[in-house]
Amino acid sequence: MTTSAPTRYIDPALLARIGNLELVARAVVEGFVAGLHRSPYKGFSVEFMEYRPYMPGDDPMRIDWKLYARSDRMYVKEFEDETNTRLRLVVDVSGSMDFASGDVRKVDYAFLLAASLAYFVQRQRDAVGLVLFDEALRVRIPPRSTRSHLQQILMHLEEAEAGAPTQMGKPLHDVAEALKHRGFVILISDALDDPQKTLDALQHIRYYGHQVLFFHVMDRQELEFTYDGPVEFEDAETGEIMLLDAGAAATQYKANVTQFIDDLERGCTQLGIDYTRLITDEPLDRALFDFLAFRAGKG
């Protein structure tokens, strides 16, 4: 997706130092929404955050006539028990997500993003669920729209840690088989596995009619590889240590990473999956804006 966020001030390094994910999520979402209201997307945000367009057959008593007077368009206010949108956050907690070259580990960034999205969705009175996975499914919480349910999701995110080996295929196939109702699936992962295994599993999820948004989380060093000279690299999942002449390996490494990203992005496009790459030193508002556009486009 090529959309740009309207605000650029939500620093993940600062957010990661706040211990309470609910405080983080509230700060991110309220700052983001305030930014939207100050932006050219103001009308879009109002429609999406609190209302849906009036449809023939709706009770006219539920039309917001004050909003109609301002916008000349009729909107109906949604209530919590009327939600028909189910969103599932599928978050990678494998060992490779523990990596950080700067202040924010990939898994921290994933948790900040997942918490913000959960808060955002619950604020809209839609149902949100959570799946945490590494080589298997570790946590599976079905979608609901209540405040207590949001607290449960945030608690699991705060308690989770990255550690086990990555395996994209089997856990995502298990997710596909477990989803009983069509809805939105958001995958947050570095996807450090064979791209074809990831794409095969995502195709399985799409087969059942779910709309999928893939946030591909990467560290800037994984992209730019600015190391030079002899460097010891430790595998985050196996503990294996390798001494490497980083300068000599840089060209081939960058070519491999470019191919890896291209394979994932092209495969997602072919499957009708929205792909967004996120870097852990980038503000979270871009991800929220892409989610907003994704929901509006797919809804």
Describe how the helices and strands are arranged.
Elements (H helix, E strand, L loop, with lengths): L11 H5 L4 H17 L4 H9 E3 L11 H7 L3 E3 L8 E7 L13 H18 L3 E7 L3 E8 L2 H13 L9 H10 L5 E6 L5 H13 L3 E8 L1 H5 L5 E5 L6 E5 H26 L2 E6 L5 H14 L1
Parallel strand pairs: 3-4, 3-6, 6-7, 7-10
Antiparallel strand pairs: 1-2, 4-5, 8-9
Helix pairs in contact: 2-5, 5-6, 7-8, 8-10
How would you explain this protein's 3D organization?
With 299 residues, this protein is an alpha/beta fold. 46% of the residues lie in helices and 19% in strands. It has eleven helices and ten strands. β3, α5 and β4 form a beta-alpha-beta unit. The longest helix is centred in the C-terminal third of the chain and has 26 residues. It is globular, with a radius of gyration of 20 Å.
